[in-house]
Amino acid sequence: MRVAKQLSVTLPNKPGQLASLCKKLAAAKVNIRAISVVEATEQGIVRLVADKSSVALGVIEKAGLGCVVSQVVLVEMANKPGVLAKVATKLSKAKINIQYAYGSSGPGAREAIAVLGVEDVKKARQLA
Questions:
Q1: Residue where one domain finishes, among candidates 69, 85, 112
Q2: DSSP for 82-128?
């Protein structure tokens, strides 16, 4: 487990907004490692972890979008059944609450990635 910066971007809930953000990040050579989009009536919240978080933040600010930077736990793990359960159990035993999670892997991929929003990032990092 390691600590990463998560950028939570507020976007209007309209067609093309996510595409526009992703194109701007791509033009700046920023790779999105993980992404989650939560819809609200008028706005959407895009949570993302990028390989170049400071460059991504600059792109977001230049676009005039609202953004909150926070620390999350980034878990790179084997892509097989039960691995995330072991991570969650380890955090639970340390009394660390997982507030939210998102992740991904491709079919046949050996590795998966999970982003965990936890109450105590420093304590979670020490469990690695």
A1: 69
A2: THHHHHHHHHHHTT--EEEEEEE--TT-SEEEEEEEES-HHHHHTT-
> How many angstroms separate the CA atoms of 52 and 88, rounded?
27
**Tokens (6 digits) for 105:** 């892997």
Q: Which is it for strands 32-39 and 43-50: parallel, antiparallel or unpaired?
A: antiparallel
**Domain assignment of residue 59, given as a range:** 2-69
Do 29 and 60 fall into the same domain?
A: yes
* Cα 38 to Cα 109: distance, rounded to the nearest angstrom: 26
Q: In terms of domains, do 38 and 79 share one?
A: no
With H, G, I as helix, E, B as strand and everything else as coil, classify residue 40.
Answer: coil
- What's the pTM? 0.89
pLDDT interval class at 48 (50, 70, 90) = very high
How far are the Cα atoms of 30, 53, 60, 78, 80 from residue 26, in angstroms, in the given order? 5, 13, 12, 27, 30
pLDDT interval class at 41 (50, 70, 90) = confident
